[in-house]
Design goal:
The termini are far apart. With 269 residues, this protein is α/β, with parallel strands linked by helices. The protein has 11 helices and 12 strands.
Length: 269
């Protein structure tokens, strides 16, 4: 008992909390870590082979008409639309004479594209570009890419080839180690429209550990919870105005909520 007491006394509380989480095998969002590196010590990350394998299996069923909808590898009997996101896409297309060219950063194997394919089919010209991690792009190019759905290893190649007019950031910003640096980098490309969706916010910015429910797949990773005004200040600094703010499908609690924003580049002329 003395040894356990001494270990507890000299071990930082954040380490003890992390060990407790792993031992109890809970899932959801936990802790309040001081740095991304601290949370990362207890995470497994995204690169486990079983994750991409399950996502590929589910996404192929949607592509081939064997399932209605897939999100985060989970199959649904009916499409769960993010109507504000879809409205933003249609608005962007309408203002561009029926042309919609999307850069979907962190877009998995095209989940958002397949979710909205029925409506995208009615547009004059659609190119949907997913920029993802290498193993996702490798699978995407082989099993999913066609004349409209494209996969790219980096932002620069996508912009050079397709010149997209809309940027989609759905359930991705919270999983970047340096989200504000990324926004500084990507918003310099001057997209006409930006759609943010499924992004968590709280009263105070914090970093938590997200543990995925085991019935989806076994994984855990650090996750940002943003402070809304600070988050939006980056966009406003690059000349974007919020056209619409909306609640995301992921819901909310007393302490945090998932939100989305549709932003348009200001025309100062």
């Amino acid at each position: 008992m003395k040894i356990k007491f001494l270990i507890k006394k000299i071990t930082p509380p954040i380490i003890i909390d992390g060990i407790r989480l792993i031992h109890n095998r809970k899932y959801g969002w936990f802790g309040n870590f001081n740095t991304w590196e601290e949370a990362q010590k207890f995470s497994t990350g995204y690169s486990a082979p079983e994750i991409i394998a399950k996502v590929r299996e589910s996404a192929l069923k949607v592509k081939n008409g064997e399932a209605e909808y897939e999100r985060d590898s989970v199959i649904f009997d009916e499409i769960q639309y993010s109507w504000p996101l879809l409205a933003g896409l249609m608005y962007a297309a309408a203002k561009s004479e029926g042309v919609l060219k999307v850069l979907d950063f962190g877009g998995s194997l095209g989940s958002t594209y397949f979710q909205n394919r029925k409506f995208l089919d009615g547009l004059k010209d659609v190119i949907w570009c997913v920029v993802e991690q290498k193993h996702y792009v490798d699978v995407g190019k082989v099993d999913f890419e066609d004349s409209r759905l494209k996969f790219y290893y980096d932002v620069e190649s996508c912009i050079k080839e397709q010149n997209p007019n809309a940027l989609v950031l759905s359930s991705v910003m919270q999983y970047l180690e340096k989200p504000y640096q990324f926004l500084d980098y990507i918003l310099k490309s001057n997209f006409e429209f930006v759609i943010v969706d499924r992004t968590p916010f709280s009263f105070k910015e914090q970093i938590k550990l997200q543990i995925v429910p085991p019935w989806i797949y076994k994984a855990s990773y650090p996750c940002w919870f943003f402070e809304k005004e600070k988050f939006l200040d980056i966009f406003q600094g690059y000349g974007y105005k919020v056209i619409e703010e909306f609640e995301s499908l992921d819901g909310k609690t007393e302490n945090y909520w998932f939100k989305g924003f549709f932003l348009e580049k200001k025309n100062d002329r």
